[in-house]
Specification:
4-stranded antiparallel β-sheet, 6-stranded mixed β-sheet, alpha/beta, Rossmann fold, 280 residues, 10 strands, 2 domains
């Protein structure tokens, strides 16, 4: 069981097509449209951030991609196959970890392969390999209660990736962490994604996080969520922490802020002078 997926193999699967989908929640008099007419695609191996205000339907979209929610209209496919329910080749990472507190880290990570009938020696070897990949070599025998918040999320990511999902769905996985740990985890995620370039849809309401992580940002409006803009980022990789101070980063952040504040008519990207001040 080889968990180190090659770049070629990883980028051949995981194509997502969101075609004019709408999703309604609630029932009867309490029914409401959560997202409306979403339309975008994600290429195999791409890391896309879905950014928008609280309540705009970001997590609802992830729920539909995971097969937990039914769309009201439109078409939702992964590798040209309709998403009709939960499937084992989709991995989900939530805001809070879902680790078994009574299992040591190694056995938490190896749980998925165990359920698939992988022999004990092979699944434990794979668990140790991917724990090393996420920077947790030496913590295999620890219990979740003995780990920090950032380490718990690393274990959660390892537990998902050991199953070699074609798509990784992440629902604000770092939002509960302090600022320093959150920044560190963003770098960890990019390092992992470089080695296992799984198609990733990452939900966030943090503009800096989206700009630092993504190949593209899907900016959503307030409810009912719709696509305001699909922004392709030109920043090189690997991404370094200093990126957040670069002129283009600041310019894009200003544009996205403006877009979210005035969704019906954001101004064009402002030109910045060498001091980072908007040119007159």
């Amino acid at each position: 069981m080889n968990v180190r997926v090659t770049d070629t193999a990883a980028r051949s699967v995981g194509r997502i097509h969101v075609a004019h989908i709408s999703i309604s929640l609630g029932s009867g008099a309490n029914a409401f449209e959560a997202v409306s007419g979403l339309d975008f695609a994600v290429a195999p191996g791409e890391l896309v951030c879905v950014l928008g205000p609280s309540g705009c339907g970001k997590s609802t979209l992830l729920g539909a991609l995971a097969g937990h929610l039914t769309i009201a209209s439109g078409r939702l496919t992964i590798d040209d196959q309709p998403v009709a329910g939960p499937r084992p080749d989709l991995g989900m990472v939530f805001q809070q970890h879902t680790l078994f507190p009574w299992k040591r880290v190694r056995y938490n990570v190896a749980f998925g392969p165990k359920m698939r009938g992988i022999c004990k020696a092979e699944r434990l070897r794979a668990a140790d390999e991917i724990l090393d990949l996420v920077g947790l070599a030496g913590f295999e025998t620890f219990y979740p209660s003995q780990l920090s918040g950032g380490m718990l999320q690393r274990v959660e990511i390892a537990r998902v990736l050991i199953n070699q999902p074609r798509v990784l769905l992440m629902d604000e996985p770092f939002s509960a962490l302090d600022a320093q740990t959150r920044s560190m985890m963003q770098e960890v995620l990019l390092d992992i994604w470089t080695k296992i370039p799984t198609t990733t849809v990452f939900v966030t309401h943090d503009i800096d996080e989206a700009l630092f992580l993504a190949d593209r940002i899907i900016v959503m409006s307030a409810r009912p969520g719709r696509v305001l803009e699909d922004i392709r980022l030109q920043f090189g990789r690997p991404r370094l922490p200093e990126l957040v101070t670069e002129f283009e980063f600041v310019r894009l952040k200003r544009h996205v802020l403006n877009l979210l504040r005035r969704p019906d008519g954001a101004a064009p990207l402002a030109r910045l002078n060498p001091l980072g001040v908007e040119a007159k």
